[in-house]
Design a protein that fits this description.
Strand order of the largest sheet: 6-7-1-2-5-8
CATH topology: 10 Kd Chaperonin, Protein Cpn10, Chain O
Strand content: 35-45%
Order of helices and strands: EEEEEEEEH
CATH architecture: Roll
CATH class: Mainly Beta
Helix content: under 10%
Number of strands: 8
């Protein structure tokens, strides 16, 4: 994929949510909400302060992040549904065992 976000924008691939609840109830596709968890695919160079200094972003490609439900703009690049959001729309980076468990 040849896409580089500008300034403080981040390209995110949504991660699929669980097919069933903790109690074992299977959730149909029509009742599912859009996942708010994703993987960072690409990041912009950062923002410039008033004095012209470049401030790099806190996220990097490969990070698992949590972002707002209505955040960003949905786009289709190379046939894949992705989200372009500002770094400020990202609520946090998921670290540790929870991220590894979901990846497995």
């Amino acid at each position: 994929m040849k896409f580089k976000p500008l300034q403080d924008r981040v390209l995110i691939r949504r991660l699929e949510s669980e097919e069933k609840t903790a109690g074992g109830i299977i959730i149909p596709d029509t009742a599912k909400e859009k996942p708010m968890e994703g993987e960072v695919v690409a990041v912009g160079p950062g923002t410039r302060s008033e004095d012209g200094k470049l401030h790099a972003l806190d996220v990097k490609p490969g990070d698992r992040v949590l972002f707002g439900k209505w955040s960003g703009t949905e786009v289709k690049i190379d046939g894949e549904e992705l989200v372009i959001a500002k770094e400020s729309d990202i609520l946090g980076i998921i670290e540790g065992s929870a991220a590894k468990r979901k990846a497995a």
